[in-house]
Amino acid sequence: MILLRQTALLFGLWLTVIALWIGVGPHESSGDKADAAIVLGAAVIGDTPTPVFAARIDHAITLYRGGRIKKILFTGGRSSEDELSESATARDYALKAGVPSEAILLEQKSRTT
């Protein structure tokens, strides 16, 4: 019986530590750099990214402008209703925001993320 209580106590302590770690989150240094950021595709309306997709693109642009990444990889194919693929829409959005074309990579064949 004592062993069962000790095991339950240790398990409860372990769960508490894990919950606190998740709640606090990992340490993120604002100086971290990477070769590229991957922006997962999302819905587009005509040739305009939805607000959620635009926020993803904007974040990648911020990382690029801040020198934290060298390239942006946009993903996302084209559904039958779309004029452009999700990634092409993101590319056009980023180009209009001043990101040079040589900093943009596209993946246009995916259907789901």
What does this entry look like structurally?
- The protein is an alpha/beta fold and 113 residues long.
- The protein contains 3 helices and 5 strands.
- The strands form 2 sheets. It has a 3-stranded parallel beta sheet. Strands 2-3 form a two-stranded antiparallel ribbon.
- The model has no long low-confidence stretch (mean pLDDT 90).
Q: What is the tally of helical segments? A: 3
State the helical fraction. Answer: 40-55%
Q: Work out the radius of gyration.
A: 21 Å
- Approximate strand percentage: 15-25%
- In angstroms, what separates the terminal alpha carbons? 49 Å
By DSSP, the count of extended strands is 5
Please write the string of helix (H) and strand (E) elements: HEEEHEHE
Indicate the overall shape. Answer: elongated
Q: Which parts are unreliable, with pLDDT below 50 for 5 consecutive residues or more?
A: none
Secondary-structure-based class equals alpha/beta
Spatial ordering of strands, largest sheet: 1-4-5
- Average per-residue pLDDT, rounded, comes to 90
Sheet with the most strands, sense and barrel status: 3 strands, parallel
Name a few traits of the molecule.
113 residues; single chain; alpha/beta; two-stranded antiparallel sheet
